[in-house]
């Protein structure tokens, strides 16, 4: 809103959480979406598991607050804070690794149990570049690719059917080439109901009167060092 | 799965209470490889926030076969703190939250008011604690002349500088007691009471006669004043969804710096070599089949419940958690507040605290208030009578949860010999300043240096995988 220039479009924040087995490419998808970048041998996520990126729709701007997972999911020890008020989730599997789809289904069930009822979930099969139908540069250098050059182990049909049954959005992507990555986030942005954007966050906020919004405090604001004059003690 | 647990960690942390989570967050950011375990299926240990159904089940105060929580809306809307505290908005926990950037996971709101009781029984007055000279002049807690004395006292506190003897009113700060300071300003007993207990937040009167104790008391008065000045209504802030969010925020900090988290995991054995703890044997349940594992640790730290033979009981807290359908009387219909009942007002040695929060902080459905009354036990029976002056402030109570006295533990040794560093139980003070003191104390014993949080996340190293 503080931006000068163009007439301001309504803008709202959406908390988006990422889930999926280790090394399926969760952080790589975020890196592609936020920085349009890819790293061949990306370290497991450390240090920055909270990123923001705007998504401009024709009528409004969605600011994604992206919560990457960071190891707490490894032994199923995610905290309620992680799901709290998440309006969107990206559940990622590696379409060259069938076990990762099983894990993805587990996370979908977990989200349906733990997260806010209206959450928009997108199932994402990543590493499409390693398959024959992969867009852009193929998986040529990847040793894992079979003779045919196709390392796909999860069919589009199987994952798509599952996604339809569970009411999930579904995409196949490549963080490496960038194929379909922006599309995932745009589709999510478009699927978030307008009504849930009006309130600040999640269902609980909706029955709090709007004036309570003002009372939120910004801890990062300047420390009151002038307290000497304004308040004598 | 078991192969994901490393053979050795720099630090194994037992229990996910706030003290433990701050430490594992800070140690992870500093590059230590941390394994953090809790026997429960949730974060927070003794200091978690739970829903009303879990609270009924914890206290067992309902007839078998009934489900009294069903009349209280959606259970997910309830986040009831087991240990009630507020953050001082200019206090050390706030400082740590900001320095570590954990603030990005949490939202805070002000606590609407800070109140103090004067007198006892039906004649008691509950009034806002004056935070500045102007409020002192309007306060019903003091008569006309006393107001003026209090005003000049508050003004003096504001410009007090321990290093500048010109601000010491001719008193020798190295030996001076706080009682002498109050007497210098001619303050009455009732005024000393609310200044010492509701502003400096001392829980007993012991501070009055400590030689050279005046500067600390003045600093505490300043912390109160600066905290009020920061946001305006009260010196306190409180996280949306309850205090249980705090340990979770620091656990996430630890995890993004490589910390490994395991809930549902009980410690079967501490492994010792030459009297020093060097590792643990543990079992993770809640999965099929359960997983037994063993790992070594350079340092082990945790809450008292993991080391029953290495801690001692130093007192007992009495606590009653009450569900109300109205705000507290005489608090200007506040959505949240604290009332301190100074000990001498009701013939006790320890203060009684009432902490009240409501749906404004997303801890219960709209129309409810959660009030928690606590104090230190002074008798061995009739504990409900000890809490009575606080309970009387609440009016009609829908549900009340009060268990036996809660023991307060402290470690017997400092950990330098056996390599085990144990936190203290959460005391009944109204804020987290003692918790962060404990964090700093444990950190310096482990690391051999003072904890410096400023700039912690700039130029950090990252744990090697
Ligand atoms: N070929 C190919 N490799 C990818 C793709 N996406 C990610 N990778 C690689 O897969 C590995 C793991 O990617 P990450 O993004 O770190 O995976 P993650 O799911 O965040 O992993 P954790 O943080 O450990 O849970 C890295 O070496 C990436 O370079 C992709 O679309 N195609
Ligand atoms: Mg990652």
TrEMBL record, chain A:
Pfam family, one: Ras
Keywords on record: Nucleotide-binding
Keyword Cytoplasm listed: no
Annotated region (Disordered), positions in chain: 133-153, 196-233
Molecular-function annotations in GO: GTP binding; GTPase activity
Alphabetical list of SUPFAM superfamilies matching this protein: P-loop containing nucleoside triphosphate hydrolases
Residue ranges, compositional bias (Acidic residues): 139-148
UniProt key word Nucleotide-binding: yes
InterPro entries: P-loop_NTPase (IPR027417), Small_GTP-bd (IPR005225), Small_GTPase (IPR001806)
Designated name of the protein: Ras-domain-containing protein
Origin species: Trichocladium antarcticum
Automatic annotation (TrEMBL), chain B:
Single Gene Ontology MF annotation: Rab GDP-dissociation inhibitor activity
Family: Belongs to the Rab GDI family.
InterPro entries the UniProt entry points to: FAD/NAD-bd_sf, GDP_dissociation_inhibitor, RabGDI
GO biological process terms, semicolon-separated: protein transport; small GTPase-mediated signal transduction; vesicle-mediated transport
GO cellular component: cytoplasm
Organism superkingdom: Eukaryota
Protein name: Rab GDP dissociation inhibitor
């Amino acid at each position: 809103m503080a931006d000068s220039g163009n007439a301001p479009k309504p803008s709202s924040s959406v908390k988006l959480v990422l889930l999926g087995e280790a090394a399926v490419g969760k952080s790589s998808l975020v890196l592609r979406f936020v920085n349009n970048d890819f790293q061949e041998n990306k370290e497991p996520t450390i240090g920055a598991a909270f990123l923001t990126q705007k998504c401009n729709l024709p009528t409004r701007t969605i600011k994604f607050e992206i919560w990457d997972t960071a190891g707490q999911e490894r032994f199923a020890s995610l905290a309620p804070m992680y799901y709290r008020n998440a309006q969107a989730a990206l559940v990622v599997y590696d379409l060259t690794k069938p076990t990762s789809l099983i894990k993805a289904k587990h996370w979908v069930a977990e989200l349906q149990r733990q997260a806010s009822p209206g959450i928009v979930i997108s199932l994402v099969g990543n590493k499409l570049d390693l398959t024959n139908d992969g867009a852009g540069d193929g998986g040529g250098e990847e040793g894992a690719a079979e003779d045919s050059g196709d390392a796909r182990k999860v069919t589009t049909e199987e994952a798509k059917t599952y996604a339809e049954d569970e009411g999930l959005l579904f995409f196949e992507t490549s963080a490496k080439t960038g194929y379909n990555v922006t599309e995932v986030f745009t589709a999510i942005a478009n699927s978030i109901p307008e009504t849930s954007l009006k309130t600040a966050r999640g269902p609980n906020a909706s029955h709090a009167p709007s004036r309570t919004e003002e009372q939120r405090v910004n801890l990062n604001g300047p420390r009151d060092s002038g307290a000497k004059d304004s308040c004598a003690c | 799965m078991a192969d994901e647990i490393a053979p050795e960690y720099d630090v194994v942390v037992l229990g996910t209470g706030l003290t433990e989570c701050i430490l594992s967050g800070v140690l992870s950011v500093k590059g230590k490889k941390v394994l953090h375990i809790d026997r429960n299926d949730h974060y927070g240990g003794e200091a978690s926030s739970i829903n009303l159904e879990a609270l009924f089940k914890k206290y067992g105060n309902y007839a078998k076969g009934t489900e009294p929580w069903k009349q209280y809306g959606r259970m997910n809307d309830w986040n009831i703190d087991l240990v009630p505290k507020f953050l001082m908005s200019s206090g050390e926990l706030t400082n740590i939250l900001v320095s570590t950037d954990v603030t990005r996971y949490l939202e805070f709101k002000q606590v609407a008011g800070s109140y103090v009781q004067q007198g006892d029984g039906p004649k008691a007055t509950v009034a806002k604690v004056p935070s500045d000279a102007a409020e002192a002049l309007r306060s019903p807690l003091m008569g006309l002349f006393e107001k003026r004395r209090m005003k000049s006292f508050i003004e003096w506190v504001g410009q007090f500088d321990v290093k500048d003897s010109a601000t010491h009113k001719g008193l020798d700060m190295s030996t001076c007691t706080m009682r002498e300071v109050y007497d210098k300003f001619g303050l009455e007993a009732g005024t000393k009471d609310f200044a010492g207990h509701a502003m400096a937040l001392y829980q007993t009167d012991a501070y009055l006669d400590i030689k050279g104790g005046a500067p600390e008391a003045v600093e505490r008065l300043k912390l109160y004043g600066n905290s009020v000045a920061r946001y305006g209504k009260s010196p306190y802030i409180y996280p949306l969804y309850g205090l249980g969010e705090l340990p979770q925020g620091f656990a996430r900090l630890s995890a993004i710096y490589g910390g490994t988290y395991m809930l549902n995991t009980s410690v079967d054995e501490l492994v010792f070599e030459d009297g020093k703890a060097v590792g643990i044997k543990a079992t993770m349940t809640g999965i099929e089949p359960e997983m037994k594992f063993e790992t070594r640790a350079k340092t082990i730290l945790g809450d008292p419940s993991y080391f029953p033979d290495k801690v001692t009981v130093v007192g007992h807290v009495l606590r009653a958690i009450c569900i109300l359908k109205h705000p507290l009387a005489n608090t200007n219909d506040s959505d949240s507040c604290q009332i301190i009942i100074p000990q001498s007002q009701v013939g006790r040695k320890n203060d009684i605290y009432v902490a009240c929060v409501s749906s404004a902080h997303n801890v219960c459905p709209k129309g409810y208030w959660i009030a928690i009354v606590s104090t230190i036990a002074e008798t061995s029976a009739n504990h409900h009578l000890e809490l009575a002056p606080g309970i009387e402030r609440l009016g009609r109570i829908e549900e009340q949860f009060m268990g036996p006295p809660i023991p307060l533990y402290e470690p017997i040794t400092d950990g330098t010999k056996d390599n085990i560093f144990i936190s203290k139980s959460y005391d009944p003070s109204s804020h987290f300043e003692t918790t962060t003191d404990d964090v700093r104390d444990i950190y310096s014993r482990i690391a051999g240096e003072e904890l410096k949080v400023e700039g912690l996340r700039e130029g950090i190293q990252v744990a090697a995988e």
